[in-house]
């Protein structure tokens, strides 16, 4: 059994993680974290998240108050908040699963530092299918080498803050590593319109032909399911920086 604190339980992503985690027999939610001053601080996370029932775990406005009851903190929020939660986890020797995107290079480095002391997973996309896509892209890049010009298009709702998406950056990293393709030569395009849940399209433009590999999420449950798989994996690990690659075996 893994005991978890879930940050931002009113957030789009973390509210779905509360629902998915509640249905898992191997995960127990022990608390949540919300912003200072919100009317729901002190309320049950099941009610705050929209699960529709109390589950006996309260939402606090300070991670320090609830961290001792958990093994792991799950966080899909905002970069600045995530960095604060990472530091609290490091101080209390708790595992940290972070799905937030949009970190600066300096913030990324803090994850590496903390991973010397605690288990940390940073995953811009926890969908199993997106991670299959990442592997396929690596394979395509390896085979096409310099024959292809690569462009990545990410489409999201108009409320998404960061661009390119964290997923687009991780896909580019795989293409670059596997295809020995300089990352600077990969071109990114970001569309932010309406309520598009999330789509990623990668185009390998060749001479006289093109290859296109795309993923479309119709809802966000796929990310919440993957986050629960990541919780279970990370709980059994020692200090280190992990990714979805570690839990998905092909
Ligand atoms: N890794 C993955 O598979 C996925 C990652 N994401 C990423 O997750 C992040 C969150 O996305 P959304 O859920 O759409 O955002 P959202 O805006 O719905 O949720 C953010 C939440 O943070 C809360 N918050 C603000 N201040 C806080 C504080 N001091 N303490 C606790 N909570 C606080 C807000 O109240 C809000 O509920 C983004 O970076 C997004 O890119 C989104 C989907 C999938
Ligand atoms: O809608 C979002 O926000 C998402 N963020 C992640 C990202 O930046 O890649 C994952 C997914 O694309 C949804």
UniProtKB/TrEMBL annotation:
Family note: Belongs to the DapB family.
Residues annotated as domain Dihydrodipicolinate reductase N-terminal: 3-125
Any one of the GO CC terms: cytosol
Sequence positions that bind (S)-2,3,4,5-tetrahydrodipicolinate: 166-167
Name of the gene: dapB
Keyword annotations of the record: Amino-acid biosynthesis, Cytoplasm, Diaminopimelate biosynthesis, Lysine biosynthesis, NAD, NADP, Oxidoreductase
Originating species: Zhenpiania hominis
Location within or outside the cell: Cytoplasm
Biological process terms in GO annotation: diaminopimelate biosynthetic process; lysine biosynthetic process via diaminopimelate
Dihydrodipicolinate reductase C-terminal domain location: 130-248
Domain of life: Bacteria
Biological function: Catalyzes the conversion of 4-hydroxy-tetrahydrodipicolinate (HTPA) to tetrahydrodipicolinate.
Residues annotated as binding NAD(+): 99-101, 123-126
Protein name: 4-hydroxy-tetrahydrodipicolinate reductase
């Amino acid at each position: 059994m893994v005991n978890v604190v879930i940050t931002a339980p009113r957030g789009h992503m973390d509210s779905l993680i509360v629902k998915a985690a509640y249905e898992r027999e191997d995960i127990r939610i022990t608390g949540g974290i919300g912003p200072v001053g919100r009317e729901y601080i002190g309320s049950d996370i099941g009610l705050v998240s929209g699960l529709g029932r109390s589950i006996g775990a309260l939402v606090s406005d300070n991670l320090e108050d609830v961290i001792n009851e958990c093994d792991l903190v799950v966080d899909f929020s905002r970069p600045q908040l995530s960095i604060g939660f990472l530091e609290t986890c490091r101080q209390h020797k708790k595992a940290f699963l972070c799905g937030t995107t949009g970190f600066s290079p300096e913030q990324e480095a803090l994850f590496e530092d903390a991973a010397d002391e605690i288990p940390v997973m940073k995953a811009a996309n926890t969908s199993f299918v997106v991670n299959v896509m990442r592997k396929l892209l690596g394979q395509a890049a390896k085979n096409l080498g310099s024959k292809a010009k690569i462009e990545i298009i990410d489409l999201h709702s108009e409320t998404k803050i960061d661009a390119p998406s964290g997923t687009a950056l991780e896909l580019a990293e795989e293409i670059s590593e596997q295809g020995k393709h300089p990352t600077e030569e990969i071109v990114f395009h970001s569309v932010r319109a309406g309520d598009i849940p999330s789509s990623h399209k990668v185009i390998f433009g060749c001479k006289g032909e093109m290859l296109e590999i795309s993923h479309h999420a119709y809802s966000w449950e796929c990310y919440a399911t993957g986050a629960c798989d990541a919780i279970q994996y990370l709980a059994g690990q020692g200090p280190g920086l992990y990714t979805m690659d570690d839990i998905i075996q092909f």
